[in-house]
Amino acid sequence: MKVWMQRCLWVLLLGSAWSMAAEPLRVVTAGASVTAIVQELGFVDQVVGIDSTSVPLLEERGLPNVGYQRQLSAEGVLSLEPDVLLGTEEMGPPPVLAQLREAGVDVVVLSASPSLETLYANIAAVGERFGQGAQAADLTQRIQADIAALPASPEPAPPAIFVLTHSANGMLVAGEGTIGDSLIRLGGMSNPAADSFAQYRVLSAESLLSLAPQWILTTTKGLEMVGGVDGLLSQQPALAATPAGLAQQVIDIDDSLLVGGFSPQIAPTLRELRETAADQ
């Protein structure tokens, strides 16, 4: 009888341990590009909360919104009882991330560097953290194949600028080292602003006119906020006087492709940009 009871207890403990090990991790994602990686790797069912930039990607799931990725609140995230907070170095503020770590949340911080190499590294890191290594390798190979199949960049590349219109400081122009600059270059165009400055700047009318862009790139949400192409050009007379403004050659890019680095869904947009550049 004693041996039988010991065996029963052993089976119960083994079953309990197996159940605990099999319990899926509860994940909160911060940054649309990170959320898109989770989508592509196929474990979105483990996501219990998202930041505001990820809402358009998972709107149909009705997940709790923990706010903007740069302004997370510890209380909002902890209320979802996550095991993991997955985001990039754009998320914060740092004291909140520290508080979450102290509470036992595994805060995974990926790079937000605006390059395809960073995208591939982030996919690999997410795959490794969640036991999806093979799926991550397959996803990277698919993206690389899509990039390799893009039309060649034209020579010379037409000049373009990338602008952010929803800044409290006014319209910002993307310089060297920004995701706007990387988008322009990968899209088969050239960024004259990158020759003069890094990061984002508000430019004088004279400086803006001197760039002489043939194309203006901006975000879809930002363009909607200013009333479309007509609203953008009416609010920015210097921009309207550039070759791109005079021809109303404005291209809007889905915001979710650019938050926290490039999204794994960026290849179709790069194809459209290269085709546009080639037709110039």
Could you explain the architecture of this structure?
This protein is α/β, with parallel strands linked by helices and 280 residues long. 46% of the residues lie in helices and 13% in strands. It folds into two domains: 25-148, 3-Layer(aba) Sandwich (Rossmann fold), CATH 3.40.50; 160-279, Nitrogenase molybdenum iron protein domain (Rossmann fold, 3-Layer(aba) Sandwich), CATH 3.40.50. It has helices at 2-22, 32-41, 55-58, 74-78, 94-102, 116-129, 133-148, 179-186, 205-211, 220-225, 228-235, 237-240, 243-246, 267-279, and strands at residues 27-30, 47-50, 84-88, 106-110, 160-164, 172-174, 200-201, 215-219, 250-253. A five-stranded mixed β-sheet has the order 7-6-5-8-9. Helix 5 (94-102) links the parallel strand 3 (84-88) and strand 4. Helix 2 (32-41) packs across helix 6 (116-129) and helix 6 runs antiparallel to helix 7. Pfam families: Peripla_BP_2 (PF01497). Keywords: Signal. InterPro entries: ABC_Transporter_SBP, ABC_transptr_periplasmic_BD.
